[in-house]
Amino acid sequence: MEIIVLSGDKLPAAAEVHARSWRESHRHICPPDFLEAHTAARQEAYLRAKQAEGSMIYLLLENGKALGLVSRSGSLIADCYVLPEEQRKGYGSALLRQAIADCPETPRLWILETNEGAERLYKRFGFRRTGKRHVHPGGVDEVEMAMTSNK
Length: 151
Known about the structure:
The chain is of the alpha+beta class. The chain has two domains: about 100 residues, Gcn5-related N-acetyltransferase (GNAT) (Aminopeptidase), CATH 3.40.630; about 45 residues, no CATH class. Helices cover about 35% and strands about 30% of the residues. The chain is built from five helices and seven strands. It has a seven-stranded mixed beta sheet, with helices on both faces. Helix 1 crosses helix 3.
Protein backbone atom coordinates (compact mmCIF):
# COMPACT_ATOMS: atom_id res chain seq x y z
CA MET A 1 0.00 0.00 0.00
CA GLU A 2 1.20 3.49 -0.80
CA ILE A 3 -0.32 6.93 -0.48
CA ILE A 4 0.70 9.52 -3.05
CA VAL A 5 -0.22 13.12 -3.73
CA LEU A 6 -2.59 13.01 -6.68
CA SER A 7 -1.03 13.88 -10.03
CA GLY A 8 -2.63 14.39 -13.43
CA ASP A 9 -1.97 10.89 -14.71
CA LYS A 10 -3.82 9.34 -11.75
CA LEU A 11 -6.73 11.80 -11.84
CA PRO A 12 -9.09 9.55 -13.87
CA ALA A 13 -8.55 6.64 -11.46
CA ALA A 14 -9.12 8.90 -8.45
CA ALA A 15 -12.30 10.25 -10.05
CA GLU A 16 -13.60 6.73 -10.58
CA VAL A 17 -12.97 5.89 -6.90
CA HIS A 18 -14.68 9.12 -5.84
CA ALA A 19 -17.71 8.60 -8.10
CA ARG A 20 -18.31 4.95 -7.19
CA SER A 21 -17.75 5.47 -3.48
CA TRP A 22 -19.85 8.64 -3.33
CA ARG A 23 -22.78 6.99 -5.09
CA GLU A 24 -22.67 4.02 -2.74
CA SER A 25 -22.41 6.14 0.40
CA HIS A 26 -25.31 8.37 -0.67
CA ARG A 27 -27.62 5.79 -2.28
CA HIS A 28 -29.93 5.64 0.75
CA ILE A 29 -30.54 9.42 0.86
CA CYS A 30 -30.40 10.67 -2.74
CA PRO A 31 -32.74 10.03 -5.66
CA PRO A 32 -31.38 7.75 -8.42
CA ASP A 33 -31.05 10.51 -11.02
CA PHE A 34 -28.94 12.61 -8.62
CA LEU A 35 -26.73 9.60 -7.86
CA GLU A 36 -26.20 8.82 -11.54
CA ALA A 37 -25.18 12.43 -12.21
CA HIS A 38 -22.06 11.80 -10.11
CA THR A 39 -20.08 10.25 -12.92
CA ALA A 40 -16.32 9.79 -13.00
CA ALA A 41 -16.11 12.66 -15.53
CA ARG A 42 -17.99 14.98 -13.18
CA GLN A 43 -15.89 13.96 -10.19
CA GLU A 44 -12.70 14.41 -12.22
CA ALA A 45 -13.69 18.04 -12.84
CA TYR A 46 -14.51 18.41 -9.13
CA LEU A 47 -11.11 17.03 -8.06
CA ARG A 48 -9.28 19.15 -10.64
CA ALA A 49 -11.05 22.28 -9.29
CA LYS A 50 -10.10 21.33 -5.73
CA GLN A 51 -6.46 21.03 -6.76
CA ALA A 52 -6.62 24.39 -8.53
CA GLU A 53 -7.91 25.93 -5.29
CA GLY A 54 -4.90 24.51 -3.41
CA SER A 55 -6.30 21.33 -1.89
CA MET A 56 -3.96 18.41 -1.39
CA ILE A 57 -5.52 15.18 -2.61
CA TYR A 58 -4.01 11.92 -1.44
CA LEU A 59 -4.59 8.72 -3.39
CA LEU A 60 -4.16 5.28 -1.86
CA LEU A 61 -2.79 2.64 -4.22
CA GLU A 62 -2.43 -1.11 -3.75
CA ASN A 63 -0.34 -2.82 -6.43
CA GLY A 64 -0.84 0.26 -8.61
CA LYS A 65 -4.66 0.21 -8.33
CA ALA A 66 -6.45 3.25 -6.88
CA LEU A 67 -8.57 2.17 -3.90
CA GLY A 68 -9.24 5.35 -1.94
CA LEU A 69 -8.64 9.06 -1.59
CA VAL A 70 -8.90 11.96 0.83
CA SER A 71 -8.47 15.70 0.38
CA ARG A 72 -7.13 18.37 2.71
CA SER A 73 -7.51 22.14 2.45
CA GLY A 74 -5.50 23.65 5.28
CA SER A 75 -6.85 21.70 8.24
CA LEU A 76 -10.20 20.82 6.66
CA ILE A 77 -10.33 17.15 5.70
CA ALA A 78 -12.87 16.08 3.05
CA ASP A 79 -13.62 13.49 0.40
CA CYS A 80 -12.50 10.45 2.38
CA TYR A 81 -13.69 7.66 0.12
CA VAL A 82 -12.68 4.02 -0.33
CA LEU A 83 -14.12 1.73 -2.97
CA PRO A 84 -17.09 -0.14 -1.46
CA GLU A 85 -15.52 -3.58 -1.95
CA GLU A 86 -12.27 -2.41 -0.31
CA GLN A 87 -13.77 -0.97 2.88
CA ARG A 88 -12.99 -2.35 6.34
CA LYS A 89 -9.41 -3.15 5.36
CA GLY A 90 -7.72 -0.17 7.02
CA TYR A 91 -7.48 1.97 3.89
CA GLY A 92 -9.73 4.74 5.20
CA SER A 93 -7.71 4.84 8.42
CA ALA A 94 -4.45 5.08 6.49
CA LEU A 95 -5.79 7.96 4.40
CA LEU A 96 -7.12 9.74 7.46
CA ARG A 97 -3.78 9.37 9.29
CA GLN A 98 -1.99 10.96 6.31
CA ALA A 99 -4.40 13.89 6.13
CA ILE A 100 -4.27 14.47 9.90
CA ALA A 101 -0.47 14.39 9.93
CA ASP A 102 -0.34 17.16 7.32
CA CYS A 103 -2.87 19.49 8.97
CA PRO A 104 -1.22 22.73 10.14
CA GLU A 105 -3.88 23.27 12.84
CA THR A 106 -6.65 21.27 14.53
CA PRO A 107 -8.05 18.83 11.96
CA ARG A 108 -11.76 19.22 11.24
CA LEU A 109 -14.27 17.79 8.80
CA TRP A 110 -17.94 17.70 7.92
CA ILE A 111 -20.09 14.56 7.67
CA LEU A 112 -23.69 13.84 6.85
CA GLU A 113 -25.47 13.57 10.18
CA THR A 114 -26.77 10.13 9.19
CA ASN A 115 -23.36 8.70 8.28
CA GLU A 116 -22.86 6.53 11.35
CA GLY A 117 -20.00 4.52 9.84
CA ALA A 118 -17.93 7.62 9.11
CA GLU A 119 -18.68 9.05 12.53
CA ARG A 120 -17.48 5.83 14.20
CA LEU A 121 -14.24 5.98 12.19
CA TYR A 122 -13.59 9.63 13.02
CA LYS A 123 -14.39 9.14 16.71
CA ARG A 124 -11.72 6.40 16.87
CA PHE A 125 -9.26 9.09 15.77
CA GLY A 126 -10.38 11.52 18.46
CA PHE A 127 -12.86 13.62 16.46
CA ARG A 128 -15.99 14.92 18.19
CA ARG A 129 -19.00 16.92 16.99
CA THR A 130 -18.51 20.65 17.49
CA GLY A 131 -22.17 21.65 17.39
CA LYS A 132 -21.83 23.44 14.04
CA ARG A 133 -24.07 22.25 11.24
CA HIS A 134 -24.93 23.03 7.64
CA VAL A 135 -28.68 22.86 7.22
CA HIS A 136 -29.89 21.53 3.89
CA PRO A 137 -33.59 22.23 3.28
CA GLY A 138 -35.42 19.03 2.51
CA GLY A 139 -32.30 16.94 2.96
CA VAL A 140 -29.82 15.55 5.44
CA ASP A 141 -27.78 18.10 7.36
CA GLU A 142 -24.01 18.06 7.72
CA VAL A 143 -22.32 18.27 11.12
CA GLU A 144 -18.79 19.45 11.84
CA MET A 145 -16.33 17.30 13.76
CA ALA A 146 -12.96 18.42 15.07
CA MET A 147 -10.10 16.44 16.53
CA THR A 148 -10.06 16.84 20.28
CA SER A 149 -7.31 14.31 21.03
CA ASN A 150 -4.59 12.41 19.25
CA LYS A 151 -5.34 8.71 19.39
